Every structure is written in structure tokens, then in C-alpha cells.
Amino acid sequence: MGLALKNILLYAGVASAVPWAGSPNDQKPLDPAAGQKGPLKTGSSTQKPNIIFILTDDQDIEMNSLDYMPFVQKHLLDKGTLFRNHFVTTALCCPSRVSLWTGRHSHNTNVTDVNPPYGGYPKFVAQGFNENFLPVWLQEAGYNTYYTGKLFNAHTTKNYNNPHVKGFTTSDFLLDPWTYNYLNPAYQRNHEPPIIYHGQHTIDILIDKSNALLDDAIASEKPFFLALAPVAPHSNVEGDISDISDIEKVTFSEPIPLKRHEHLFPDAKVPRTPHFNPDKPSGVNWIAERPQLNKTWVDHNDYYYRQRLRALQGVDELVDGIFKRLEENGQLDNTYIFYTADNGFHVSQHRLNPGKECGFEDDIRVPFIVRGPGIAEGAVSNAVTTHIDVAPTLFEIAGIPLREDFDGLAIPLERVKQEKRRHEHVNVEYWGFAVEEGSYGGTLFWNNTYKALRIIGENYNLYYSVWCNNEHQLYDLTSDPFQLRNIYPGYADHDSSLTILGAPLIRVIDRLDSLLLVLKSCKGTVCVKPWQKLHPEGDVDVLPDALQEQYDTFYKHQESVRFDRCEAGYIIDAEGPQDALSYTRNGIHWSHWV
């Protein structure tokens, strides 16, 4: 077990865990909060570095799935850096993937669902992103670009050529309604017609296609970007999920592993953490109404968990094959390899059956591992990073000037010694439904729309959310890492004597709500430096600065985050206040911004 993997297991001590760079004997701290400007180191090569991006579907980190992937441990965790505080900003595949490839929050892409009218490939095209996203930008910078696997939902055997996806030298996409059918997948290469591979396992097909694309990329003798997107460990789905209102016609079942892996981990169970099927409900809205799971559901969910781990073994083999090819062709030392997932997943936590779409840690915190030139080996970084930061990071690797419409900040890979410390916040947002998966799945929960803030700093570790029915959640993860006690006023676990950073709870809530008010509509640099919107004179950079008593009157004048109604997509007139007050020493003034 690598050092990075051991650090993963410090589940409840994330905020205070000490990261180390290099081997255990080096005892050299990795400081994720410092940096240096300039291009990344690429060894002696004069060619721009290559980039390989492996993107799994629904992979957890909180349920320890990485523990069961020996090749990911060998090639990535032991030889790269794990970013332990990496989050998605929308816990649903299509919105998360669009944000990943555009560097924009979902409220700025307005792709907020898996299907039209609010999401999916047709919405991606309608928003103009087919001509304006990462592979197009990389090609303009001299890269060859390759992709195989799942790109977006509602990218189908009927609309794949209306229009074809732009920006790729070679592509071989999975297509709906066969994307999640493990044994009958449909792949579509370049501008050729789709092929349905009846009776063949999607991961073995993907491994072959990935190896072929890597061979082509290396042979081109140009810098390349290669994205590999297996569907594992997503549920197996049969039927057309393009009409979510007709979900009864869709069959959800457990992931289907390759035959050679179906016997593995016979005793594995969902980790029995404190939030596993708790004795009392947690959360708000529909989550608070979930009954405790009976034995039938618990047993089913343990089986579902095992099938997830088994399905990931094919992905693990994919990783091993990619590294072997890179090494054999002398490309390993000039290639950055990223490994992550489009969102996390829950199985039995908070009494929830298999699914995602919630704001809990299980769903928004995901694996994010990077290996490449100059990146510390076997290290764990506690820097707060998100999928919004990925496009700026790849731009920096490729030596491309950053775009003004990026909502994120390049991730501190190996060079962070001379910059101010990284921001502390994550903007989390969701619209529409949640769905239970697995053999007993298919149940939809509407009004799952919420805006949330995740904030991590020295001696504070908080989650704050406002739902579209205007219920609230506040968790102090320092004392409650499993998010079981909602301490927001008016809920059973609230205690008026509670303090955070020595401040009364109501003062902390005022600041969190104002920060969320800025983030839920932010664009560009405001998303990176939201405190500067609230305090334009630069006297507040982090939550402790904002908690000074002198700002109490200012924050009490601020409008609160609220919804006027629940909607299934991003409809601004349903989302309450959009503008935030700004503080100056001469008094409060109103600042409109877009």
C-alpha cells in the first residue's frame, strides 16, 4: 500500500492530516498552498508535454474504491499526487463533464441536466460549446486530440451527426441508448456509423480502442491529449433514459464486471461508517423522509458495492496497459496523467440507496490523482480544488494563455511556492431530480434543487446549503465529519451556544450565506476571489477575516440566499437575489455585477 493510499484512510481527519512529498523516509512536507509562476517542468524534452485524462463514471473516494485498484496505486498513487480535497461542483455526469471541459460552472454553461431541455449533448451544442471547448482549444495550440468512451448524455445513435462532435483528431464515442449497457455497447468512430457490439463487454472494447488511440498519438510525433472515459462503475442501464418522466421503461441494475473479475472481493461490504444507514434521519427535504433501510436493501446495497469494485478492475487493467505503452515508447517522462471521476456516489449513507445528485461528501468529493514531470511522488495535497480548475490546469501545462471566461484557477501541481495561498471555497449547485439506482431502483425524487458552499481552511471545515424549498443545512465537519448533525437554527441538532472559530453561529451563517450569494451567480475571477466582491478594498481573503465584529452590520444588511420556487433547470427568476452588497470603509454601497 502506497503512502498516498494510507493517507486516504484518514477519513475523519482530512482537514488536519499532514501531507508528505516523496518517499516515507524523506519526511518532506508538500505545501499545497504555495506556488511559483511559469510553465510546468517537462524534463529535457523540447516538445510540449502530452496529457492523458482518465475519467471514470460515478466513482467514489469516500467508500475506498481506490483501495481495490492495485495498478492505480502502483502507477498513480505511489508515483503521483492525490488531491484529497478535490470536488465536483455539480454531482451529475453531464453537467459535471461540460464544466470539466469548459472551465465554467453549470450556472454559466446552463447545461444542468442529463437530457434536454436543460442538458445533454443537444443543450451543449445549442449553447455554442461544440466550437468552444477544451479539445478545440488544444488543437489550436498544436495538439492532436483523441477521445474514447462516454462524452455526454443524450449523445445518441440518432443525433451523433447532428452535428458531429468537433475538436478531435480521432474519436470513438459511446452512444445512448447503449452507453450504460455493459454487454451491448454502441461505439461510433469519427464520422462513421455507430456499431453495436452485441454480447461484448464495454471495458474490453474500450481497452482495445484506448491502446490503438495511444499508438496513433505516439506515432504522430506531435504533443497529444488523450481522454479515456469508461462507464464503470456506473449502474448497468437498459432502455432509453432520454425521457426521465418515463423512467418506468428503464431498467437499472448493478454494474457488470468482466468475467475474469466477477468472483473477486466476496466479503466486501459498504464501509460501516457512522452515516451508514443511521438510526435517525439526516439531511433535509426528501432526504429527511427516507426510512431506515431494511435488511433486504442493506444486503442488496452490499452486493451493488461489490459489483462496483469488480467493474473497476477492468479500469485498473486499462491504467496498467496505458503506462506500459508510455514506458515502452519513451513517452512516460513527458506525459501528465490525470485520473478522476465525473461525480462521487453514495450507497446506504444517510439511508440513501445507490445514487448521486446530493451535496454530501460522498457525492461531491472524488478521486483526483496526477502524475507527471516534476510532480511529487506518493504525496497527498490538501489544496482545495475542483473540476472547474481542470481546464485552466491543462492550459498551463500546454503553455496556453488562460481564458477570461474560466471560472477556475490552475491546480497547484508541483509549483506553488511563491503565490498567495489558494482559495478555501467550493461552489456546489444542482437542479432537478435525484434517482435511486440498482435492481430495486428507478424511484425519482423531485425538488432536488439546491445551492451549497463547501469551505475548508485552518481550523474550519464547513458545508452550508440552501434548498429550493428554502430549507437549510449547516455541517461542521471538524466535529461531525459524516454530516449527521444539521446545526442550522430551527433544526433538532442546533445549539445556540455553538461557536465556530470562536464566533457565534449566527455570525458565521451571515458570512457563509453572503459568500454563497456571490458564488451562486459568479463569473470569471469573481468565482475564484468571491471575498473581493464582498470586500473590494481587499481587507478580507478568508472566512476568519470576515468574522470580525466590525462587519456585523454589513452582513445583516445583505440579502439572504433564497429560491422563489423549485425548478428543474437554471431559471434565473426562480433563484431569488442575484446581486450582493459590497463593504467599503465609507459605508455600504450597492454593486451590480453579471
UniProtKB/TrEMBL annotation:
Record's comment on post-translational modification: The conversion to 3-oxoalanine (also known as C-formylglycine, FGly), of a serine or cysteine residue in prokaryotes and of a cysteine residue in eukaryotes, is critical for catalytic activity.
An example Gene Ontology biological process: phenol-containing compound metabolic process
Enzyme nomenclature, EC number: 3.1.6.1
Annotated GO MF terms: arylsulfatase activity; glycosaminoglycan binding; N-acetylglucosamine-6-sulfatase activity
Database matches in CDD domains: G6S
Domain of life: Eukaryota
Keywords carried by this UniProt record: Glycoprotein, Hydrolase, Signal
3-oxoalanine (Cys) modification, residue list: C93
Pfam families the UniProt entry points to: Sulfatase (PF00884)
Signal peptide annotation: 1-17
Catalyzed reactions: an aryl sulfate + H2O = a phenol + sulfate + H(+)
Annotated region (Disordered), positions in chain: 23-45
PANTHER family per UniProt: N-ACETYLGLUCOSAMINE-6-SULFATASE FAMILY MEMBER, SD21168P
Family recorded in the similarity comment: Belongs to the sulfatase family.
Name recorded for this polypeptide: Arylsulfatase
Organism, as annotated: Arthrobotrys oligospora (strain ATCC 24927 / CBS 115.81 / DSM 1491) (Nematode-trapping fungus)
